[in-house]
Write a structure and sequence with these properties.
about 290 residues, YojJ-like (1, 7 strands, extended
């Protein structure tokens, strides 16, 4: 009871600046957590949590020697984390440093514009899959991917099925590299991506798939891969590879990843009314 009264007393003493301070901190945490939630940073977090839990358990169990060793390790824990996880930390800091202000404030491309980009990409992937033409398409999100764009040829063109198919045509000069789509436009093509070193990937996957997974591990990008050998379509997100996707599944997955919240907008009243009207028109035509 005293704790509750003390809490209420603290609330009554808070000023408007204290509430503003709390709101700003909560906003920053809410915005930055998704940016650092990658397989690499999650491994760092798990390692730190495991060491802390083991140190607490050894102290509770009176294992003094082991507890002393772990406490000494925790005393220089920050330095140890920097040394052991230097590549992961560098990628995490690169990712945070490349975040644009409008992305932090939640300002993004209109859903209608991304609908067209996704539709053109899916149409191109469907044809390339049927013709067994290899493709590697990267959709940038918060991170602008400038360091990868510089490795290829700058295009800055409108996304279209014809442009995508022409770039990945087997005899085209840029077909071996990756295409990067940023802000609804083709930013560059023929780009070089980092390869994944994960041992969880199937042995039958080639360089194109490993580059797609590696890009999704190092950044928050969504990567679409079309296999040259089998024609199968895959998508890499957050270090995970989803294979053997149909065109409709690919379109839905890209909508979910690139247009967050679009699913909820589908359920709004205007959309529901339009669907009801279309059903009524269809029924009247059938009669």
């Amino acid at each position: 009871m005293e704790a509750i009264q003390s809490f209420i007393h603290q609330l009554t003493r808070m000023q408007w600046s204290d509430y503003l301070d709390i709101l700003l901190v909560a906003f920053l945490i809410y915005k930055f957590l998704p940016l650092i939630k990658t397989p690499s940073t999650m491994r760092i977090a798990r390692a730190v949590v495991v060491v802390i839990v083991i140190a607490w358990a050894t102290e509770a169990a009176h294992l003094y020697t082991l507890s002393y060793i772990l406490n000494q390790f925790l005393a220089v824990g920050l330095l140890a984390v920097v040394i052991l996880f230097q590549p992961e930390l560098r990628r995490m800091l690169d990712k945070l440093g490349s975040v644009r202000l409008r992305s932090l404030l939640g300002i993004s491309k209109p859903v209608q514009e991304m609908d067209g980009v996704i539709a053109q990409t899916v149409a191109a992937c469907e044809v390339m899959s049927r013709e067994k033409v290899g493709a590697l398409i990267v959709f940038a999100r918060e991170a602008p991917l400038e360091e990868f764009t510089r490795t290829g040829t700058i295009i800055d063109g409108q996304v279209s099925e014809q442009l995508i198919r022409n770039i990945f045509f087997p005899k085209a000069a840029l077909h071996d590299g990756a295409m990067i789509i940023r802000d609804g436009r083709v930013a560059a093509a023929g780009c070089v991506l980092p390869l994944s070193g994960s041992d969880r990937l199937s042995a039958d996957l080639g360089t194109r798939h490993r580059a797609g997974v590696g890009m999704s591990e190092a950044t928050d990008a969504v990567v679409v891969i079309v296999s040259e050998e089998t024609g199968t379509i895959s998508v890499a997100v957050g270090g995970m590879l989803k294979r053997h996707l149909a065109s409709r599944t690919l379109e839905k997955l890209l909508h979910n990843e690139l247009c967050p919240g679009s699913e909820e907008r589908e359920g709004t009243l205007p959309n529901q009314l339009r669907r009801k009207l279309s059903r009524k028109e269809k029924e009247s035509h059938e009669k």
